[in-house]
Write a structure and sequence with these properties.
The structure holds two protein chains of two kinds. Chain A is mainly β. In chain A, 0% of the residues lie in helices and 53% in strands. By secondary structure, chain B is mainly beta. Chain B contains no helices and twelve strands. Chain B has strands spanning 3-5, 10-14, 19-21, 24-26, 31-38, 44-50, 56-58, 64-68, 73-78, 87-95, 105-106, 110-115. The chains are: A mainly beta, B mainly beta.
Chain lengths: 116, 116
């Protein structure tokens, strides 16, 4: 079945530093990947949609320069939180959409980011 | 625009009893509908989806859902709940006509608590 690996699962960083989160599709090619943010006891908020080889499409209100997304290959997308602040602390989840015909969205296991 | 409503923040049920988690949706065209389950500090696990065909969809772990177009609902059900079913459940929708980069819109989630 489709598997998406997200790394790291937990990260603690100092305020002002940058953190990179990786999302890999292990057994399929993901033309499209999605990045979500989830606050405690809340739903998933879509941050951006990334397509391989092109610029990400950000949702309204999401800072492009703060949340850098790169989708360099069909199996890897990265989210970099730049100059992190405590308010960026959250649970970040990626999702990969398989090629047409499967309608499936596979989610990574999430990354708990804590900025101190 | 597409949206999903999960009217119940929490559903409590005794083990062995049937459970229902409610979901209603709104899309401009025909919907693709999904149910996911999330355990603490984990990503989302796929339960089932409705794309087309039979309105009753059977999924993982004994769960099923019924697509009702007239009521725009897609309630999740299980005939006999288990304590291990306790988790956070998300309903999601995608508009069929929104292309290959289409995104899912999630409901706010319903916490299912199954007790002995």
């Amino acid at each position: 079945g489709a598997v998406v690996s997200q790394h790291p699962s937990r990260v603690i960083c100092k305020s002002g530093t940058s953190v990179k989160i990786e999302c890999r599709s292990l057994d399929f090619q993901a033309t499209t990947m999605f990045w979500y943010r989830q606050f405690p006891k809340q739903s998933l908020m879509l941050m951006a949609t990334s397509n391989e080889g092109s610029k990400a499409t950000y949702e309204q209100g999401v800072e492009k320069d703060k949340f850098l997304i790169n989708h360099a290959s069909l199996t890897l997308s990265t989210l970099t939180v730049t100059s992190a602040h405590p308010e960026d602390s959250s649970f970040y989840i990626c999702s990969a959409r398989r090629d047409r015909g499967t309608y499936g969205y596979t989610f990574g296991s999430g990354t708990r980011l804590t900025v101190v | 625009a597409q949206s999903v409503a999960q009217p119940e923040d929490q559903v409590n049920v005794a083990e062995g009893n049937p459970l229902t988690v409610k979901c209603t949706y709104s899309v401009s065209g025909n919907p693709y509908l999904f149910w996911y389950v999330q355990y603490p500090n984990r990503g989302l696990q796929f339960l089932l989806k409705y794309i087309t065909g039979d309105n009753l969809v059977k999924g993982s772990y004994g769960f099923e859902a019924e697509f009702n177009k007239s009521q725009t609902s897609f309630h999740l059900k299980k005939p006999s709940a288990l304590v291990s079913d306790s988790a956070l459940y998300f309903c999601a929708v995608r508009d069929v006509g929104t292309g290959t980069a289409s995104k899912l819109t999630f409901g706010t989630g319903t916490r299912l608590q199954v007790t002995l």
